[in-house]
Amino acid sequence: MSDTLPGYDEIPYESFPITETHPDRLAVIGRLFGLAAPDPARSRILELGCAAGGNLLPIAFHLPDTRCTGVELSRAQALEGAETSRALGLDNAEIRHQDILQVPLAGEPFDYIVAHGVFSWVPTAVQEHILALCGARLAPGGIAYVSYNALPGGRQRSMLRDMLLHHVRDITSPRERLAGAREMLAFLATPLRDTPPGHDWLRKELERLQAARDSYLYHEYLEETNEPVLFRQFVDRAAAHGLQYLADTRLHTMFPSTLGADAEASLARFDDLTVAEQYADFLTLRPFRRSLLCRSSEPLTREIDLDPLFALPLYTDLAPDQEGVFRNAAGRSFRVEPPLLRAVIESLSEAFPRARLLEEIMPEASERAARSGHAPTSGDLRSLPEQLFSLFASAGLQVTLCPPDPVISAMPAGSGPRATDLARTLAERGERLIPTARHQSLQLDPVSTRILARLDGSREPAALVEDLIAAAARDPELTRELGPATPDRQRERLEARVSGLLALLERHGLLVALR
Fold first, then answer.
1. pLDDT tier at 5 (50, 70, 90 boundaries)?
2. For the chain, is the Cβ count within 10 Å smaller at the N or the C terminus?
3. H or E segment to which residue 277 belongs
4. Domain boundary among 200, 221, 242
């Protein structure tokens, strides 16, 4: 096994939470389809290709009764992840520098196996070993998450990849290849008098890539291997290793009704789920999939019972944006028009990141709806579960089996705000993607990152401002980040930044609670 991977070591794949890989999300989907998925809060998790642990370590931190194992081929990233784990004192996490092919098929079982951003980017022998590992080492009720580039949409990206690879064909340095790729993107954006067929897609993809992170552009488009696969072929290959298709983490894609009445009618001819999903991929030119697998011997049901689902705690980060529209932290909008549904979402949003039982909030939600002039009717109550499920399937609402407890730390009265050890440690290292208690990512600007690094409980907000002003006098880079301003204006800006950041951290469960 090589100790160095030039592309990955020089341009590391950014390591941050992949929300839909969290064992809580996987377990809820499993139980939705009748799988007796293990308790995510006490589960054994294996992540293949874990990079520096940005996805795995937050799980270990927020769910201390889990056992998390990560495997990473890049020695530099594996060492970085292991060091972060030690700095946080995580005795339930281990990151190994290891080739996936060297992970044995025999050994302890895992409740959840995650392979995100790996399958399409490795040779066929490694792909087969990933599936073999899942087949051999999934525990009863266990779930494997495997993401991959899918056909037919992946073929469009392959077309662009071919052009970029041709342009950098004589360049070996990863950084120079990346620069060459960006040069080619600029060339491909050259305006044409008459737009040829296919250029609408290309134009949108170029806009996306021009703003993309270096790591994404390099590893998605310039790696030696990147082979998209038909969904049905993936399912058949998994079946050869004793696995069956459970679901996609993007649940709404499994329901043809989301494509419109005509598409739903056309797809109704297929009585096999995987065939129907394959033909839906053809209709939508789907480029990427996040497939969940379980053991073939596990009994599943495709008849969804909403009563047990919504007897579990619920949470959402949706916040009102305009009349009938809510927006999540990532900026995605959701239409929430029925008054009772809107009242339920408002009640859950106010409690976020904590989860609440629907049964518990229904009285206040009903009262809230009544105050808005829409007293709930029996019809409203009957239609609420389907409305909630629609939001759940489109990821606007979440169901949880392990609502996180607040992080508690004994601090003397009068202590200043203190961020979680995980958030503060990452900020001290200059990381700007900060994991939340709900396994999302907060993207901070450089000044907010510096503020977060100082939230150790020793300073009140006013003292934080003065500390940053003093630091700026010694640090030209910080001065540039703060921007030109008079001393008074600089202080006003920093007071607003500190106040805004504290509100954001509190909203996402990243401030340590007082006893």
1. low
2. C
3. helix 273-284
4. 221
Instruction: Check: pTM over 0.85? Answer yes or no.
Output: yes
Distance CA 484, CA 476 (A): 12
Task: Evaluate whether 121 touches 226 at the Cβ level (below 8 Å).
Answer: yes
pLDDT at 480 over 90: no
CA distance 81 to 343: 42
Contacts of 91 (CB under 8 A, 6+ apart): none
Three-state SS at 418: strand
Q: Where does the pLDDT of residue 481 fall: very low under 50, low under 70, confident under 90, or very high at 90 and above?
A: confident
pLDDT value at residue 405:
56
In degrees, rounded to 5, the angle at the alpha carbon of residue 134 between the alpha carbons of residues 133 and 137 is 75
Contacts of 257-266 with C-beta under 8 Å, sequence gap 24+, read 259/283, 259/284
Amino acid at 476: P
The whole-angstrom separation of Cα 256 and Cα 272 is: 13
DSSP string, 8-50: HHHSPPP----GGGSHHHHHHHHHHTT-----GGG-EEEEES-
Whether 205 and 157 have beta carbons less than 8 Å apart is answered as yes
**Is 406 domain-assigned?**
no
First to last CA, the chain: 49
Residue 439, pLDDT score: 95
- Which H, E and C letters describe 323-348, residue by residue? CCEEECCCCCEEECCCHHHHHHHHHH
Whether 3 has a pLDDT exceeding 80, the answer reads no
Q: Is the pLDDT of residue 45 over 50?
A: yes
pLDDT digits 0-9 by tens, 187-223: 999 999 888 888 888 999 999 999 888 989 999 999 8
Distance of CA 484 to the CA centre of its chain: 36
Q: What is the bridge-based pairing of β-strands 93-97 and 67-72? A: parallel
Residue 386 resides in a domain: yes
Domain residue limits at 377: 311-399
pLDDT at 456: 92
Which H or E run contains 399?
A: strand 398-399
- Would 413 be classed as within a structural domain? no
Q: Is the dihedral of CA 402, 404, 409, 411 positive or negative?
A: negative
pLDDT of residue 6: 60
Indicate whether 43 and 192 sit together in one domain. Answer: no
CB-based contacts of 447: which residues, under 8 Å, 6+ apart? 468, 478, 481, 482, 494, 497
What is the mean pLDDT of the segment spanning 475-494? Answer: 85
CA distance 44 to 109: 8
pLDDT for residue 411 is more than 50: no
